[in-house]
Specification:
The chain is mainly α. The relative contact order is 0.11. The N terminus is likely disordered.
């Protein structure tokens, strides 16, 4: 008689791991900054509908990741990763040799699709509504004067915020602040405006369906088109 092979069991995240993810999203959505104090454990337990012990375990898990600091007798405080080394590295690359468009776009091609995947899985209804508003504002701005670069930057930053990862959010914000190579007047002609809005709407559609793969592909196509457009413009010049 053949011995029946047991089916492999699926490893499921423990309750405190799920709660730590909810707590991390809570901090991101409420814009907690470095040094801000979290509400007491009792208040968090009531808010999340869990026990204080579960909250304590979730806090411990985030503290091990360097995102929280528990001070005995004083409470729990937010800790934000130090962005200065990354900021310095990006500034050094962006400020040298004509902004190094190829390297920055290669960096974005690695970073932003991964951000999009997380965004699809973690976005809130409010964040989705915010992205829709930005896309609508972008369409209106194009009809008025065609200057939608700032709204384009807002869209990508809001998409990063949907990921709930503060390190990724800060990195995208820094790129928006220091590099506008994909938003120059030479690149943003009438055909580009149409593509940009359509691309953002495809990203929103994938987010609404919470399709991580669809969101990744939409962002990859968006970034690839920026590169192709840049190559066309530079070859023409």
């Amino acid at each position: 008689m053949l011995k029946e092979t047991p089916l492999p069991t699926t490893v499921r995240p423990r309750h405190y791991q799920k709660l730590s993810e909810r707590l991390r999203q809570f901090m991101a959505e409420n814009h907690f900054r470095d040094g801000d104090k979290l509400p007491p454990e009792r208040a968090l337990a009531e808010s999340f509908g869990v026990s204080r012990n579960s909250v304590r375990e979730a806090i411990h898990a985030l503290a091990e990741r360097g995102l929280l600091e528990s001070r005995h007798g004083d409470g729990t405080y937010v800790r934000v990763p130090d962005m200065e080394p990354l900021r310095s590295a990006i500034l050094e690359a962006v400020d040298s040799e004509g902004h190094l468009f190829d390297e920055v776009m290669e960096y974005r091609r690695i970073l932003e699709p991964a951000v999009a995947e997380l965004a699809a899985l973690r976005r809130t209804p409010e964040q989705l509504d915010r992205l829709k508003i930005i896309a609508c504002d972008q369409q209106r701005r194009i009809l008025i004067d065609g200057d939608d670069g700032e709204l384009d930057a807002q869209f990508h930053l809001c998409l990063a915020e949907c990921s709930g990862n503060r390190l990724l959010i800060n990195t995208v914000a820094l790129l928006n602040e220091q590099y506008a190579g994909g938003r120059t007047a030479d690149l943003r002609d009438a055909s580009w405006h149409q593509f940009s809005v359509a691309s953002h709407l495809r990203i929103i559609d994938a987010l609404e369906r919470q399709s991580a793969e669809g969101c990744r592909k939409a962002v990859e196509e968006h970034l690839d088109t920026i590169v192709h457009k840049h190559l066309f413009v530079t070859a023409r010049d």
